[in-house]
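re: that complex we talked abt at group meeting.

here r the seqs, copy pasted straight from the sheet so there may be weird spacing, ignore it
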Amino acid sequence: MTFGLNLQENGNHHLFELDPRLAADTTPITQLDRSMVLLMRDQTYPWLIVVPQIEGLRDFDDLDPDDRNRVGAEIDRASKALKQIYRPHKLNVGALGNIVEQLHIHVIARFPSDPAWPGPVWGAGERIDYAPGELAKTCKALQAALK
Amino acid sequence: MTFGLNLQENGNHHLFELDPRLAADTTPITQLDRSMVLLMRDQTYPWLIVVPQIEGLRDFDDLDPDDRNRVGAEIDRASKALKQIYRPHKLNVGALGNIVEQLHIHVIARFPSDPAWPGPVWGAGERIDYAPGELAKTCKALQAALK
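got the structure back, here u go
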């Protein structure tokens, strides 16, 4: 699935451009009202990234109240999609942005059997990409769950 | 400042009890509409924890839409209080809960000079408590900023 991820007009928002490091590590899953949803291509963790398509945001509190509520609902949708497919023990939700400053919210399915447990996943090991067939299957399942 | 943190009635919500591990590592700062705001007693990072006082929540998507919006606004208030006082380079906002499962949202002021930078703070080192005078001063500043 492809769509105009890198340059997108959103109502009266300015032109939005996805950070190239986020684009390089992820595959687009779907387009929601305020955000794009990306899959982190790391087969170690079922891992979505919600990126509000609003130019110039760095921190969660840069969202205005209406956008914050909408993005909150989209984080909720991403969370429920991961739960439906993977039945994780716990979800981790986080907006860090110490390396990629553009506001993006990680939503990660966690299991006591995963290699970083109970620590955070960020910086916990090398990203291991999906095999092509596995990637296509994963994207399809997530797209269905996010409908 | 003390208030009835451990056993609190919230409208038509059930009785809420703060996880004892959260209570042990933090000092209460203030009471908002849906959440209590706690200070993590670690002088290495200006670090607030927002805890929705609703019994039985584990993940961010366990919040119903109205509570999610209100808690989102309270995360915003905690974020802006930290920014006002500390002028951080970046804020980290995260709901992990791999160890303490009760829903709690970390709001942390980050600096390129801090010891965990650019990694996450969780699990990055031992907690170093504030000296008593410093703790009182920090609580007072945060309470004023959260008014």
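couple things i noticed - Residues 65-86 of chain A form the longest helix (22 residues). The interface with chain B takes residues 58-61, 63, 65, 68-69, 72-73, 75-76, 79-80, 83, 90-99, 101, 110, 117-120, 122-123 of chain A (CB under 8 Å).
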